[in-house]
Amino acid sequence: MMRTLISTLALMSATVFAAPTVQVDTNIGSFTVELNEEKAPVSVANFLRYVDDGSYVNSQFHRVIPGFMAQGGGFDEKFNRLPVNKAIQNEAANGLDNDIATIAMARTQDPDSATRQFFINYADNDFLNYSVSNPGYAVFGKVTEGFDVVKKMSQKPTRTVRGMRDVPMDPIIITKIERLP
Prior knowledge:
The chain is of the alpha+beta class. It is about 20% helix and about 30% strand. A hairpin with a 2-residue loop joins strand 1 and strand 2 (about 30-35). The two termini are about 30 Å apart. It catalyses: [protein]-peptidylproline (omega=180) = [protein]-peptidylproline (omega=0).
């Protein structure tokens, strides 16, 4: 009886503390991202706010650079800028590195300017990591399934649109995005 109780409690605690996981469906396939709420609570909460309100749906990956990263979440298919919530604090000093298959917040030159745009690293991009002389880019999770779909994005021909380079010629659109149970 006691062993069963302990096993049940262990399973319950594993469920309670499971990392949030999000499935991203695009017009070229799906991938899953596991978020690190412990090390990047502000970035995860911010990302999940856009997931939960549905505003990532019909946004596109507008900047895809082979060997570097794929960036999305900020524009619709016609390059209309999507509404943003308040910018968040940069959590790049959280100990998570911009390694292959990690997801991080995109931002401007201002370290605390990230809103809705994110990127997925195609390589270990050490120059994006936090250091004393570099505010870095906050990693908040990792692609755990379907990284082949993310890599497929980098094989698409690109062009320049409205002054933005590396835009896939055939838009890569988020068709559905949701938390997994």
